[in-house]
Amino acid sequence: MSLRRWLATALLGLAAPAVPAALLDFSDDERARILSHGPWPPAPARDPGNAQSGRPAAVALGRALFFEPRLSAGGTLACASCHVPQRGFTDGRPRALGRSQPGGAADTPLDRHTPTLLNAGQQRWWGWDGAFDSLWSQALQPLLHPQEMGADPARITRLLRSDAQLDCRWRRTHGALPPEGRTDPQAVLVPLAKALGAYVATLQSRRTAFDQFRDALARGDRVAAARYPLAAQRGLRIFIGRGNCSTCHAGPLFSNDEFGDIGALFFSRPGVVDPGRHGGITALLANRHNLLGPWADAPAAGTEDPALKTRHVLAQHRNFGEFKVPGLRHVAQTAPYFHDGQKATLADVVDHYDTLSPDRLHADGEQILKPLQLRGTERADLLAFLHSLDGGATAASLQPPAPCR
Amino acid sequence: MRRGVTALAGLLAGAAVQAACGDSLSAAHRLLAEADGVQLAFAPRPAPLPLGRQFALDIVVCPAAGQPQPATLAVDADMPAHRHGMNYRTTVTALGDGRFRAEGLMFHMAGRWRLLFDLPAANGQPARRLSREIDLR
Predict the structure, then answer these.
(1) Looking at this predicted complex, what is its ipTM?
(2) What single DSSP character describes residue A21?
(3) Is A366 close to B84, i.e. CB distance below 8 A?
(4) How many CA atoms lie within 13 A of A127 on its CB side?
(5) Residues of A numbered 243-282 whose beta carbons fall under 8 angstroms of chain B's beta carbons: which are they?
(6) What's the whole-model pTM score?
């Protein structure tokens, strides 16, 4: 090295602030990728096609209904029975438990894992196969399915009329209940589902250690950024780099909210294949409660039409065996994993990507997913990063509303 | 030297032609595609082109001199390296005078995308495909 060059280097070293030892030297490209996973929290979510979303009265009614087992046949199952708040709004089981007998006990594993509801309002499609284009239309599925809550609209109407608190909240939200004996079940079911959608849209995970790190990087605060554990930084580097994880687990939610084939097993039962997204699009377009149907509320003037996605979605052969890319915020709280809970722990998920077989992925072109072939501490690093996406319980979402008067 | 000046003049003339196509579109976000003398200018809405969000394209087709404006246009996009397209089908509305609006597009992952514009055969002219690659982060 020439004296001139040595001097220039030495002077630059004096001028630039020292990088703390506990902060990896992320490149500009890595930094841009990291920043794309924030900021958090995002703007409040709105349930599409649901004019009640964001209205406090509807949220309070939806919260009361969410924890109300009397909506179900037999009066024993509420939404919260499977979407357990203390378990990250999942149930901790590989597959949701359903009823073998109408109104009976939940005693039979269904085909899919109960997805978390935290951050559900930020999504585009709902259900592992994306069969629903709004939270409120999705809420009708477990509410009415005989193996799940198996609700009866006439009985729900009687409940709403007989329970003073529910009756009060309903009036505050939707006005008077339909007259006694009215036969159109949609007159109760759709407003009820929209109240549930309004509540679920408020369920949001907390800020995390990753968010503190991301924001520190954004404002150039290296000292604060260096408080993020080195193992998590190394795991993050794999996540946004050679792991290609952020190609699908993108954005602040760590999901592109689309669907992918990750080489997971897709037999629901012996001899029965879960068609995944392909079946989801078919069901979506046949559903009279979708955003193109008569019960969807028009968007507010000047806002984007949420039905664009439904109008333009395209069913393709490759959708067979594709399932929703789940968001990764608070992922450590929502075990087991994958659409049918086939992976018990986060470590099992990392092992899946570490050793996956490209032959199972049916990719025609460049492989987005390749075996990670993790070495040394890399497996633990990736897990440290995933755990850093957990901000703890979300007590604010659970506060019961004041009594309705 | 004269050859160099001629080349420069040609470049400048080309730039002038490019600037002329789609002047009504937002200059900051206007992109061009060209094939066989046909030019096509487009600009996304919202702009810049978003990742993971539905967007529309305002499009202006500028045919070669003496050729009529196309009545129809098809728009699609794919990721050549991954050999897959979008998860959404585009609808195109003709607005007249070579202007079109394409709706329903969405790029669902970062990487290199290719926008494809298909003009049908008409008036003795063959069908043409214009394309433009875009790197999305």
Answers:
(1) 0.85
(2) T
(3) no
(4) 23
(5) 246-248, 250-251, 256-259
(6) 0.89
